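User: Please predict the structure of the protein below. I'd like the answer in structure-token form so I can feed it into my own downstream comparison script.

Assistant: Understood. Taking the following sequence of 124 residues as input:
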Amino acid sequence: MATNIPNFEIPSEMRAFAEKSMAQAKQALDGFVSATQQAVSAAENHASAARSGAKEVGELALRYTERNIASSFDFAQKLLRAKGSDEVMSLHSEYVKEQMAALAEQARELGQKSIKMAGKSTSN
């Protein structure tokens, strides 16, 4: 059973148009993939900077906590050795003054570190 199927040939203009369209589609896809890779890389850098900054702030806060606890124990030991209420009041006044200054400095440093961290994470 012989079938007579006519030869179907794509005209050269259509073939050229299809090839050009395919090349443009591949170029667009390559551009999309490249942009996606850059976006992912930027997001990873941003997350890395945020993690690093948060770790630094956390470590700084931990050092301040340790310092404040040591200061409190030192104050308690001085109170135990106090000879009278006048000395207790004097020690308390000195401790409060020192702690207020230390807390103000710690808050300032933590604030600066947080601002610096926020600046780094927004610039990435």
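That's the full token string. Helices lie at 12-80, 85-123.
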